[in-house]
Amino acid sequence: MKIYTHLQTTCFAVIVASLIAAPSIGLAASKKSYEEWLRQYGAWDQLDKEFARESTGDSPETLLKRANVYLNLNSPKQALEILEMSSAFEDNTHEAQRLWLGGQAHRAMGNLTKAVLWFTQSAEQLNDPKSIKRAFKDEDDLEYIWMDVWKKLYWAYGDKYSISQEVQQTALKRIANVGAQVWDTEYWKQARELLGLTTSEKNQPAKSNDSNPEPIMLSEVDKELIVKSFSLISLEKFDAAQAEINKIEHQAVRFFWTTLITSIETGQMPNDLSPLEDGNYLKANAFWQGNIASVVSQGKSAWVLGNPDSAPWTRFRNNLLGMPADEAIVAIDKELDSMLISKEYSSLLKSVKLALSLSNGNLSLASSTWESVDKNELPLSLLFAGTLSFNKDFNNALPDSITSNDQLRSVFTTLAESTGHASLKSEAPFWVVSPDEKLQTLSEKTYPMDKLLQLAYWKTRFQDKPTLAHAKRAAYLFDNTSFGTQATLYLADQAVEIKDLQLAAFYLNRIDQQTLSENQKMEWYDVKIKIELESGHNEKALRTYNLMTDLQAEIPVMTVLRMSLLFQQLRKYEVAREQLLSLWNKRDTLPSSLQAETLFWLGEGEQGLRNAEKALDYYLLLAWQYPQENIWALTAMYRASLIYEKRGKYETAKRLLTTVVKRADRKEQREAAKARINAIDNKMGKSSKNEASTLKYPF
Question: Transmembrane ranges (predicted)?
């Protein structure tokens, strides 16, 4: 992060002078001041003490300098405390600087939305467009962050669930205006048009390519089948629900909904999406690949009426379902007329009545029942069926229990769009069809604000060639999806690789472990173990490893290897042997370098157990079978030579050591081998011409 390079601009010239100016503390004029000298060496902690001693400690200049120091110390929280405790400065230039530093602090803390809002306010304090452009372009990657933050805020605004829509719209307009002023790209023209800041002759984005097939349009019959199916789900009649969906003619649509029902019933996400992939249904495919629907598979209890584990409720429900629908509804009405039933029981009976009437196509009875039920008490399946049947404005029909849950709201909105419910004009139809090679144009130019298209495009880019820049944007934009989690895990892993454990922990802590799939939970534990091992918390690493093994899934090879070495360090040689043998047993799937390393550590473990003969087996097998893996082969030969030397097999030991001397890349290894040869020569004494023979003549 470039901290404050934008202060070199004209509008900040006065402040730059004030930042540099400082008492000479007795130095000659030609020499640097103490403050400048501290800056040169990056002694920011000492510099803060100097600023704190200044008599003008509450002046804007001093407060800003102190905040800047904390940013250089990578302590954005402390910098923000200084900036937030200060009231707005009267001078526009100072206030712009305060807000800009606050934006940098929020960005350093990972709060991109707040960072952009602070940067926006900073820009609004300045009157010089050229200075604004320079300041913004000096902040690394701010153009992409500006786009992504606006896009994410627009998605939330588009859901139309918030009571603060006016506030959201104001923020979007301010961010878009600054974006257009600084970068003036087609993206910001579209953004401002969507907010009514500009006008255009076109009402809808242009189609990406006229040769693409027209999107699927669901018929009214299809929608009725979906309503009946989800009503049956609420009654736990999953086979009957599937039978209704199977009447949908179009294969891709039928596959989408049958897969959804299976996921609700079993809690399993689909492994095969070929009907959607082969047909190039980008958004429908992204719905599953991005795990937008992960909330669907988190337990069917939220989707069915009553407690599915309650035997009395199950008997009562089955009794009702065993009657003809009309008789069941009459029986329910009799129960509802009773003065003795509880409010909860009454609500449950009305919900069953709604489910029965919807599943049997009695829309008149269903409509009146719908008006009388508490929407917050309905299971998700029945709520979806009812809103699809009776409400034109889907978003306004959702109860608080849905609108307050980002994931549920996103799933409901997406499912509604898949049935043909009107989407925002910035979004492509749900069943849009386009081949992968046109995905970039479709997502970047035609529909740059469409969340599912963006997800499909970003996921494709990330799979082709993951980079830190891509991962950061994906982790921010799609934080509530499995793809966003995948990007965050990648960032955490990369942070461990460069030994930035604090940053790695920051990424890991952003992930809700409870929502992870089994594969991602394994990755999460894997990164956690790396952090714990690198920070010396071996006991924590052992506990995490035990949790990994409890998953009964394939543990990453390098994690098994790392933990094997930890077990050896802790003298748990038998445990280490078991882990290493599990790797050796699947050696055909490992690169030769890992095969060689596994053999070496097996040898080391046997040495620790004082099984010299077994250790020798591993060392020699390694030296013979993997001579190309120089570091492991030569180290194994050196270890084997020590065993032979201890046994008095001096010539064998010397031959092994001579090879080490010839082939070693490291001087230290060559010198160690030479030293052992000299020691062996001293033990052997004067050589004889028969010394190479193992045959001995006692007389």
Answer: none
The domain boundary, picked from 361, 389, 418, lies at 418
pLDDT at 16: 26
Name the residue among 276, 213, 160, 233 with its Cα closest to residue 434: 213
Instruction: Note the pLDDT of residue 554.
Output: 87
- Distance CA(688)–CA(682), nearest Å, equals 14
Query: For residue range 599-616, what is the model confidence (pLDDT) as tens digits?
Result: 999 999 999 999 999 999
- CATH code, domain carrying 31: 1.25.40.10
CA-to-CA distance for 397 and 383, rounded, in angstroms? 10
Whether residue 326 lies inside any domain: the answer is: yes
Task: Look at the chain and report how many structural domains it folds into.
Answer: 3
Q: How far apart (Å, rounded) are the C-alpha atoms in residues 367 and 347?
A: 16
Q: Does residue 126 sit within a domain?
A: yes
- Asked if residue 309 and residue 413 are part of one domain, the reply reads yes
Does the predicted model carry a pTM greater than 0.85? Answer: no
Do residue 233 and residue 134 come from a single domain?
no
- What is the Cα–Cα distance from 540 to 533, expressed in whole angstroms? 8
DSSP conformation class of 89: P
How far, in Å, CA of 213 to CA of 281, rounded? 10
What phi-psi label fits residue 697: left (phi over 0), alpha (psi between -120 and 50 degrees) or beta? beta
Of the three residues 140, 173, 198, the one that is the final residue of a domain is: 140
Structure confidence at residue 635 (pLDDT): 93
Where in the sequence is the domain holding 668, given as residue range(s)?
Answer: 587-685
* Inter-residue contact 564 to 571 (CB < 8 Å): no
- Which helix or strand (DSSP H or E) is residue 548 part of? helix 538-550
